[in-house]
Amino acid sequence: MESQLTFEQKYDIIVAKDTSYEGIFYTAVKTTGIFCRPSCTARKPKIENVLFYDSTHEAILNGFRPCKVCKPIAQAEETPDYIQSILDELIEHPFKKIKDGDLRNRGIAPSKIRRWFKKHHQLTFHGYQRMLRINSAYTRITEGQPITSAAFGSGFESLSGFNSSYQNVFGSSPTQTQKGVINIIRLSTPLGPMFGCATAKGVCLLEFTDRKMLETEFKQLTRRLGMVILPGMNEHLKQLKRELEEYFDGSRTAFAVALDTPGTEFQKAVWTILRQIPHGETRSYQEQALALGKPNAVRAVASANGMNRISVIIPCHRVIGKDGQLTGYGGGLERKRWLLNFEQKKPQESQALLFS
């Protein structure tokens, strides 16, 4: 197992202002009360004054403020440029294999990219590439290509290797009935990274990556839709990425991307009512039940809200308690408060909440 970075290694990285460790850890300085990205260009702190944290959230909880020079939470946990360029390249050419030697030729230490992928995708870098190739091969097969052509055309070097990998992912051979694919990507937002998932019909999940119920939601999706989740991009995810960026920069108040929301008829009705709450406004669970025509179903409405897998777009954060108090939110109450302040044009309050 690859060893973790030591304190001394992290300090050497911040001295070198190494941008390839963006999103891996954050530097807090006890004498100034601020925290920074590893690549911050501010003056080097003394080693005895330094603390390291794995996330911006952890640094904030320990009382540190974001640095005004490197702005570590301007786009929290943003994908480093060198990794984003590789992701874009692999999405465009999923059959391509980028080996450790190729990484070194690009000036990238393989250990760095392995560490980032394990943290943010729970996969090794090479495992991520393999999943992309399986996704590409599946698409080719469903479009009518022969299995052999799909396998070799997606970068597999042997048919037996392809069949084995395919069986591991889909639970059946390429010649048997095919399951569909749910594509998944990682998105950077001011409130932390999110996972976006979409089928050929539309977006089926948008959640913060630290949501406690995330693994359960993945399992529910694969069971309800009869599909497997694989890294990859589709048109709905491209539109989601664009619209989410517009939402957070303040230029979008409504989403147009298509959705695919498996659930009971009651849950779907509740999610439809949720989308009717205007940007910048809130409703109580009681008001939601009345709008649904089921005034006695307040608890059922609250339960259906909690089963929503598409945060922000299906805005369950706009539902509050009857007394006006904030109630539970899968992404955390501080994110809920931030989103409401942001939508109600209270930027100072939302920033203060994020930094406090």
SSE blueprint:
Elements: H1 7-16, E1 26-29, E2 34-36, E3 50-53, H2 56-61, E4 65-66, H3 81-92, H4 100-105, H5 110-121, H6 125-142, H7 147-153, H8 159-170, E5 180-187, E6 194-198, E7 203-208, H9 214-225, E8 227-231, H10 235-248, H11 265-274, E9 283-284, H12 285-291, H13 298-306, E10 319-320, H14 333-343, H15 347-355
Parallel strand pairs: 2-4, 5-8, 9-10
Antiparallel strand pairs: 1-2, 1-3, 5-6, 6-7
Entry keywords:
12% strand; 356 residues; flat; alpha/beta; 10 strands
Q: Number of helix segments? A: 15
Enumerate the spans where pLDDT stays under 50 for 5 or more consecutive residues: 347-356
Share of residues in helices: 40-55%
Indicate the radius of gyration in whole angstroms.
22 Å
Shape by Cα distribution = flat
Please indicate the percent range of residues in DSSP E strands (runs of 2 or more): 5-15%
- Overall structural class, as computed from helix and strand content, comes to alpha/beta
Topology as a string of helices (H) and strands (E) = HEEEHEHHHHHHEEEHEHHEHHEHH
Largest sheet: 4 strands, mixed
